[in-house]
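To the team - EPZ complex, inputs and output below.
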Amino acid sequence: MTKYMIEGGRPLFGELHISGAKNAAVAIIPAALMVSGPCRIENIPQISDVALLLGILRDLGANVRYLNPHTVEIDSTHLRNGRVPYESARRCRASYYMLGALLSRFGSADVALPGGCDFGGTRPIDQHLKGFRALGIQVDTQSGFVMAEAAGGRPRGASIFLDKVSVGATINIMLAATLASGMTVIENAAKEPHIVDLANFLNSMGANIMGAGTDVIKVRGVDRLRGGSYSIIPDQIEAGTYMAAVAACGGEVRICNIIPKHMDCITAKLVEMGVEVREVDDSLLVSRIGPLHRTNVKTMPYPGFPTDMQPQIAAVLCLAQGTSVITDSVWNSRFRYTDEFKRMGAQIQVDGNLAIIEGVEHLTGAQLEACDLRAGAAMLIAALAAHGISEITNIQYIERGYEDVIGKIRSIGGHIRAVEAPEEELSVSSAG
Ligand code: EPZ
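Output:
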């Protein structure tokens, strides 16, 4: 087992290349099982969630091979329908996209419910199941598995109004509807960039999906998808995380290979806090010299401020002058990480889905335990900005979603190294 050791307190300078978007990749890989013929996916991030989903596809009989470190070819022509076991599903929530994809391809699916919970609250899937049922699919949950079967062996198009804007439900319903008979209309759909990316991927393989990126998505079912090539968009949250690191530590870093428009909601907050952000082609030049100013942040579905950047912006606000309030309106208990920040000297009070942060002059290094992916990323930022040395354990959470985090941080002057930790130092934790 490995932990990260970080010596903080240094400004960051240099240039960073952002990887392909994790949350697009984890939807596109399951979608590839619906394609008959070889399908080449470029700009795949090298992260553990991707490895896990490719493993599930291999277990179902897909031919998966890497053409280079960021390009994978998936041929699902001879894929069989089969149970996706708990052992695989519990380690990655996105494994539930296998449901929509298998239903589309075979008309039935048997997938373990994803286990654990990243944030300490519940993560319901009622809207996914409501969507499936509307498509004529009978759904049973038994012994931790979702067993779903379409009447007549094929989902049939329908109109679905989501009660809550849900990324996962929008994606799962889009997948199930792609090879359905007739037209599906998803209203109150999520609009995140990775939803548009999935729709673009499916359309490039022969699907007929319109309106992705708006709150009404129309999917006209087609009979089959054919092979092709597709390149995944850059990761909005990885880019935002490094922008927040520069804000917290000071310095100047060019964040390259991004879609600046996707960053607007994050850029706007950082600018309010006194960070300078300049757009240069497909990169952002982020610098911070002066003090950080307080602000309030409310997380919202896209194009609002993303909940997946909430812990990272909290790390920056811990060092801003004055009192800031964060409201997470997407997840109501995503503040578990604040106990770790307090051990670094941060002044934070949490009340339900609100965190009130009184900025301090500096944080001090401490032993920290990552409790989920973005909490782990926020601890990295706090540790890089803090005086002294920090240790972060449970780094497997961070490696689920950040490619080569050590190499990237070092390339901009951060002092971080991975060390082997004796077992007894590492706490036992369940995967989210
Ligand atoms: C996706 O999770 C992301 N995961 C999450 O990112 C992200 O935090 C979340 O969207 C919100 O942006 C992936 O894309 C793999 P939701 P998802 O369904 O799809 C409620 C990260 O750090 N809800 O949009 O699970 C739910 O409780 C991860 O990369 C229902 O009530 O999120 C929440 O309050 C963590 N019923 C809200 O909707 C449902 O059936 C949004 O959830 C589904 C969701």
